[in-house]
Target: 6-pyruvoyl tetrahydrobiopterin synthase
Amino acid sequence: MAGFPAERIGYLTREQSFSACHRLHSVHLSDEENKQVYGKCNNPNGHGHNYKVEVTVRGKIDPITGMVMNLTELKRCIEEVIIIPLDHKNLDKDVPYFADVISTTENLAVYIWDNMVKMLPANKLYEIRIHETDKNIVMYRGE
Model:
């Protein structure tokens, strides 16, 4: 068809929710500095969130299947990378990655990206978007 590209690029997003708790605390700051930087999120007993994660893949729309990616495969990757290791967990105590990394939502997005990119076909992962609350959203694109 004239005027249309031979290959179409599409974006597919799958949304998944999970619940987890954590405490924002840096070993590089004093207790007082941690309280100033992280406020109530530095509570010694931690606090929890009902996170909503959007995983977006990008790629050519296959002319035979009509898909950027098989959604069943994307769901399986999300289960392995997000649900199994993170849902109903204490991020700081149950996820080894956060033993040395502060469990901010920014770092959580990096953690999810780094593990999703290993599971997905090369150059497919486009974006991880995490809604920590209704008003706080973090987006990461592997940069």
